[in-house]
Amino acid sequence: MAGTELAGAPAADTAPTEVKHLIGDQWRSASDGASFESRDPHDGSLLANVARGSAADGEAAIAVARDTFDSGDWSDLSPKQRAVILHRVADAVDAHREELAELETRDGGKTITQSLHAEIPRVAHNFRFFADYVAMAANEAYPDGDLLSYVLYPPAGVVSAISPWNAPLMLATWKIAPALAFGNTVVLKPAPQTPLTAHRFAELALEAGLPPGVLNVVHGFGGDEVAGPLTSDPRVDRITFTGSSVTGVKILQAAAVNHTPVSAEMGGKSANIVFADADLDVAVPKSIRAIFGGNGQVCLSGTRLLVQNSIREEFLERFVAEAAALTVGDPKDPTTFMGPLIEQQHLEKVHGYVELAQEEGGKVLVGGERLRDPARAGGFYYPPTVITGLTNQARAAREEIFGPVETVLGFDTEEEALRIANDSPYGLAGMLFTQNLDRAHRMAAKWRAGTVWINTFFERDLRLPFGGEGISGLGREGGQYSRDFFTEPRAVTLRLGR
C-alpha cells in the first residue's frame, strides 16, 4: 500500500483509500471481507474504506504477537538495542509530521494547529522518552551479609492496546511506546472513527526497522467483533485502554476471566476552580482552553467551572466574551480554534445534554445550537456553549458530555469548592487558579483526582503517574508506573558462597 495515498486534500474524483489490518508483515483485508467507511467530520466526504475486523482477525493478530514475543527476537534485545530502533521510529514520525498531522485533522476534526504543533510532535516524544527511560532506569539491589537480593523487570508479553478517537495517534503511542520499549509485542485497535494515522504510523514503523509482528494493527469494533479476543484471549498478558467508563467496565469484566491486568484511563467530569485572588489574565484563557480545546472532546477537560462568587460576574463577562469570539470552522484552516465534533451521533448526544440542562433550570449564555450556516452545514459543528443556573446535582453537571459545553457553578469558601469538586463519581483531573500557594497545596492534597494543575492546564511530564480515581480509571502509567504495568517485576535472592 502506498504510504502517500492520503497525503494532501483529495480531488473530487479520487478513489477512497483502502485501510487494512497489519498482522505480522502482511496487510490483510478482514477475514470475512467486511469493511466500514471513515468520513471527514468537516464535510462528510469519504476518506477510506477500512477492514472491519472479526474475532478471527483479532485472534490472528494475537497469535502473531504471541509467536513474535516467544521467539525472543524483540524481547531478548537489550534496552539499548530496542532504543536504537524506537528512536528511528520517532525520526520517521518527525520526517512525516505534516502528513500525519493532516491525516489526523481530516479523520477526526482536530485542528491542524493542534495536530501539527502539539499532538504529532508528542507522538515522537513518547517514543524517545520511553526508549531512553528503559535504557537508563535504575533497578533495586539489597545486599544483606551473604545474601544479595535484586529485582528484574522482564516484559509482560503480549499487550492489547485499545485507543480512542479524540487524540488518536498520540494516545495510541502513549500505550505502544512503553509497551515496546519494555520488550513486549502489541496488538493495537484504534477507534473505528479514526483509523488513518494508526495505519500510516504502522507503515512508517516497519520502514524504520521495527521487526514484523512486534506491532500489529487491527481495525473494527468491540463486543463480539475484533476487540473481543483482545480483551478475553488468555494469550494476552496486558490490556491498556483509553475510552469511556462504560466500555472500560466491559473490558474489566472480560479481562477478569483470565486475571489479565488492565490499565484503564476512562471518563472525566473535572472541576476547574477559580478563586477571587486568581490572575484573570491567566485564569480566563487557560479556562477557555481547558474546556474548548480539542473541540471540547478531551477527557481531562474542566467541564465544571467553579468560580468564587465575589468575582463570578467579572469572570463570566470575560469568559463568555472569549468563548463567543472563538473561531469555529474548517480544521484545516490554521486560524481555526475549534473544528467539528467527531460524528452525528455524538453531536446529537452533546446537544441533548444542552437541552437537558435547560430543562434542569440552566441558562445558556452563549452557544447552545448546532451551527448550520452554509460553510459548516455539511459537518458536525457545535459552538462553544456556556451554561449557568445549575447545581452540582444536575445531570448536565455530573455526567460526561464530552463536548464544548461548560457548566458554571458558584462557591464562597475553599471548603465548599473542595466539597463540590469531590462530589463526583469521576476523578481524572482538576484545575485550580489562585495566588495563595498554601491554599493550592491544601487543595491538591485533598482533591480526589489523578492530576491537579495549579495556574495551568494540560502540562505533562512523562515521568509522572497518569490515570484517574473513581470511575475515571484503574491504574497509572508514565515513567516507573509504566514499567510496573508493562513488566512482571521479579524478586531474585542469592546466597553468596563463602
Question: What is the total tally of β strands?
Answer: 23
Please state the oligomeric state of the protein chains shown: single chain
Which CATH top level class of the largest domain fits? Alpha Beta
CATH topology call of the largest domain: Aldehyde Dehydrogenase, Chain A, domain 1
The helix/strand class is: alpha/beta
End-to-end Cα distance: 63 Å
CATH architectural arrangement of the largest domain: 3-Layer(aba) Sandwich
Give the biggest sheet: 7 strands, mixed
Tell me the overall shape. globular
Q: In total, how many domains does the architecture comprise?
A: 2
Strand order of the largest sheet: 15-16-17-14-13-19-20
What is the CATH H-level superfamily of the largest domain?
Aldehyde Dehydrogenase, Chain A, domain 1
Mean pLDDT rating: 95
Strand content: 15-25%
Total count of helical runs of at least 4 residues: 15
